[in-house]
Amino acid sequence: MHLIWIAVLILGAVGLISALVLFVASRKFAVEEDPRIGEVSEVLPQANCGGCGYPGCSGFAGACVKAANAGSLDGMLCPVGGQPVMERVASILGMSVTAVAPKVAVVRCNGSCANRPRVVSYDGVKSCRAALMTGTGETACAFGCLGCGDCVASCQFGAISINPETGLPVVDEEKCTACGACAKTCPRKIIELRPKGPKGRRMVVTCVNRDKGAVANKVCQASCIGCGKCVKTCPFEAITLMNNLAYIDPEKCRLCRKCEEACPKGAIHAINFPPRKPKAEPAVAAPVSEKPEQPAAEKTAASSNVESN
Amino acid sequence: MAKKLIVSLSPHVHGGDSVQRNMYGVCVALIPTLLASLIFFGLGAAIVLATSVLSCVFFEWAISRFLLHKEQLTITDGSAVLTGLLLGFNLPSNLPVWIIIIGALVAIGVGKMTFGGLGCNPFNPALVGRVFLLVSFPVQMTTWPLPGQLTSYLDAQTGATPLAVMKEAVKTGDTSVLEKLPNAFDMLLGQMGGSLGEVSALAILIGLVYMLMRKIITWHIPVSILLTVLVFSGLLHLYNPAYADPVNTLLSGGLLLGACFMATDYVTSPMTPRGQIIYGIGIGAITVIIRTFGAYPEGMSFAILIMNAFTPLINTYNKPKRYGRVAK
Amino acid sequence: MKTFKIGGVHPAENKLTAEVPSRPAAIPAQAVFSMYQHIGSPAKPVVKKGDVVKVGTLLAEADGFVSAPIYSSVSGTVSKVDAIVDASGYRRPAIIVDVQGDEWEEEIDRSADLVTLADRPELTSEDIVAQVKKAGIVGMGGATFPTHVKLTPPPGSKADCVVINGVECEPYLTADHRLMLEKTDEVLVGISLIMKAVKVEKAYVGIENNKPDAIARMQEKASRYPGIEIVPLKVKYPQGGEKQLIQAITGREVPPPPGLPIQVGVVVQNVGTAFAIYEAVMKNKPLVERMITVTGKPLARPANLWTRIGTPMKALIDECGGMPEDCGKVIGGGPMMGKALMNLDVPVCKGSSGLLLMNDKESRRAAIQPCIRCAKCVGACPMGLEPYLLATASAFKKWDVVEANDIVSCIECGSCQFTCPSNRPMLDNIRIGKSTVMALIRARNAKK
């Protein structure tokens, strides 16, 4: 019988000593942390996607607290949680946030298998970046989608998939959180984060080809040839033409859909509009985001990327 | 252009080596051992090996097909056949079929497929199966038939193996017991009790030479294990003659089979020559320690599994010599 | 016999054209001169549409120090100064010339007479470098680094020997082999010029011993040129890699990137470059043509062709028997490091050493199997890297891991992928990792 008691005593003693050590250590080495960081962290989505630009949700929480101490939460946005989460964060920190229009990833290439002939077949790792090293990918287009799905792999929310029929990525707008991972990953900068627009409606030029019209036309039937018809048609001066490529400024666009009709190549797409009635709908006046896109910067970045290949 | 050219990144040629070539190459290297086991154990050897190979291949197929839903089946790559052969060679020839099937299930199911199949397992699957059987069925797994009973299977007469004799000598400290050992020449040929693949050192060495010639493996692992065992057991023998002498140690038990075929398993051994030598020294030392001081007469399986666990660590700390980098 | 120490593989040699004497290729009807024929800044066009040019007329001048001028290799009129799709697959600036006749600029010496250093005792080191720079010579082995830059050691460094690359370790290619056989004296004079340019007394010419005729011919004639030693080397790929060749011949190891051969006192040049330097300095002939091996198992008549730069690849294939039915892949360069072409209108450039056609079966990669951790890639890597680790970590975007494991040292020789039993596309992934890490390093340096 006493054997058991010895065991119990020894184990109990070991437990006690360990507890004592742990207690002392926890006191001695305790790290002072602003309790609000934990609180903020709790309302964040915990996807740790890095879409906010900070390493994970706790990093973002720390940055939010720091920003609040500095006096303003401007520029802090969790793209996954969006406005509701930022409002909760602000209420914890006793601040207010300004409204930011929700964004969504938009694929700006319509070079489907039908529109853009494959001129060679690529045999290698299924990665856009590897395909890019062999040349222009499977098609002759020096700007369009490579179709290997680096964006799909980069998406933490399963919001992008490659449509097997077109070979192009499709964004599931329900799932897309506009974290920007795909836009960052795409070696050809085809994916752009654009304001979702009212009822999700928006106008997009689905091409990024900056070659001259004849060249662009030769490689893809759905390419923007830089003819400028849309620019002339647009009543709101929302479309600019730069480097043989039209770009619709979402801030200025009033969704009148005139450019869509004007484009001879069908390179301008109206997304999430109801099917057209025989007579064109009246233009919908839309409240617009406060954060304009920066097409010029985007383009120079993209062009330098292509040249470096 | 009517026909599309293929583009890919260089290199555009391949050396022609393949997983199959390596796996079946090891199987070919095991043929002398297979013949030796059939010569010494006859029917029993045939039943044990056939059961082991067939059930390993079956479990590989069934698990990847029904549990993992893999599209690309890996049963043709030869790795399951090899696991089955190695497992069989590690079993006594009078082991009942149902125990072998359990061993194969553990080897393939637990040892390999739970980790994701070929290339992902941290431990040698055949040894996982063998050690599982050894601790679960210690009696059946440690009574070895004497060689030469060609037509008997479960009813074969059993007898002491050289390792058991050596262990007895260590325990009693009585060196005269060692005289019961077969002479070195018999041990080289395989005229002794033991598991199927353990008995004939000569057959294993032929297989080793074949694998080295075809560059399936490099010399680092087998040579470092055997040298370590030789030196370490030699020192122990000099210290106390009751400890087995190095030649007997080398030729008895699963040491050669393990050193040549089990420790050299690609998946579970280190990647750099220096790492492989460290791994080999570790296996050799642990084997001798277990054989001399441990409870079991044989320590090869445990030694390899223990060093398997160290393989990632060895890989991390043993980088190849980089070109142009001066040692710090 | 000497060879490099770490790694290496033995691809099937397939030197189909080793016995085929070189011959001039037909002059094309139209020649296309890409402005991107070298590493560094692209050349700047100096001609315009309608200009009449002769062979040797300057078409584009060097833009900066690390750049090279481009000369017309044909006579005719400039039809366009535009962009064409070049070997990169992208449209880049180029000059297109419609060919009429074959008139040469008068100051080019077209005779076959050998001019040795003894005939031109007045040549100084500076003269040679200036002439090389003027002639637009770039590394002819395929690296296309402007040669005058390599002949001008950076301040504070001094070369003590020149290593000449006559290894031609790529399977199939035989252009350097034929050059050493057919233009032995010219190559040797070229080597003497390189020695004089970098002011050293010693040159080693590394030749793999699968070319015994070239070794014998070079050895026989080299005795007449002081300081040139022919070093036969054991056949092993990638011995033609600069770093491997330096180690094989001198035993020295170039420090890891951004280390350069000059840091261990070596200047490496290709035999093709040596020949071009001879022609530039002694014959006043700019770089307008080069030898190129047009080869491949499906091709009817593989050949070594003296080709005018700017000739479309398609014309070369036609000259060697036409595009075979079962051709699956066309490679610019050799099979280990060459680039698969998307488009056969691509012109021959200064660095085009070969054109290789592969049949359908050879062109396809085999099915990928799981990595069995056999470590054969580790044994094959000539830089002492761990390709399996770099490839896997790159695929999982562990950029810190690949950087810590020296991914930037990778020379992309392809030995790992060549040797992999599981046919894993290791080098594809390693390239992604390497380019990412190099971009990260550049960004870090820019921050500092």
TrEMBL record, chain B:
<keyword id="KW-0472">Membrane</keyword>
<feature type="transmembrane region" description="Helical">
    <location>
        <begin position="277"/>
        <end position="294"/>
    </location>
</feature>
<feature type="transmembrane region" description="Helical">
    <location>
        <begin position="219"/>
        <end position="238"/>
    </location>
</feature>
<keyword id="KW-1003">Cell membrane</keyword>
<feature type="transmembrane region" description="Helical">
    <location>
        <begin position="97"/>
        <end position="115"/>
    </location>
</feature>
<dbReference type="InterPro" id="IPR004338">
    <property type="entry name" value="NqrB/RnfD"/>
</dbReference>
<comment type="similarity">
    <text>Belongs to the NqrB/RnfD family.</text>
</comment>
<dbReference type="InterPro" id="IPR011303">
    <property type="entry name" value="RnfD_bac"/>
</dbReference>
<feature type="transmembrane region" description="Helical">
    <location>
        <begin position="39"/>
        <end position="61"/>
    </location>
</feature>
<dbReference type="Pfam" id="PF03116">
    <property type="entry name" value="NQR2_RnfD_RnfE"/>
</dbReference>
<keyword id="KW-0813">Transport</keyword>
<keyword id="KW-0812">Transmembrane</keyword>
<keyword id="KW-1133">Transmembrane helix</keyword>
<feature type="transmembrane region" description="Helical">
    <location>
        <begin position="127"/>
        <end position="146"/>
    </location>
</feature>
<keyword id="KW-0285">Flavoprotein</keyword>
<dbReference type="GO" id="GO:0005886">
    <property type="term" value="C:plasma membrane"/>
</dbReference>
<dbReference type="GO" id="GO:0022900">
    <property type="term" value="P:electron transport chain"/>
</dbReference>
<feature type="transmembrane region" description="Helical">
    <location>
        <begin position="250"/>
        <end position="268"/>
    </location>
</feature>
<comment type="function">
    <text>Part of a membrane-bound complex that couples electron transfer with translocation of ions across the membrane.</text>
</comment>
<keyword id="KW-0597">Phosphoprotein</keyword>
<feature type="transmembrane region" description="Helical">
    <location>
        <begin position="188"/>
        <end position="212"/>
    </location>
</feature>
<protein>
    <recommendedName>
        <fullName>Ion-translocating oxidoreductase complex subunit D</fullName>
        <ecNumber>7.-.-.-</ecNumber>
    </recommendedName>
</protein>
<keyword id="KW-1278">Translocase</keyword>
<comment type="subunit">
    <text>The complex is composed of six subunits: RnfA, RnfB, RnfC, RnfD, RnfE and RnfG.</text>
</comment>
<feature type="modified residue" description="FMN phosphoryl threonine">
    <location>
        <position position="161"/>
    </location>
</feature>
<keyword id="KW-0249">Electron transport</keyword>
<dbReference type="GO" id="GO:0055085">
    <property type="term" value="P:transmembrane transport"/>
</dbReference>
<feature type="transmembrane region" description="Helical">
    <location>
        <begin position="300"/>
        <end position="318"/>
    </location>
</feature>
<keyword id="KW-0288">FMN</keyword>
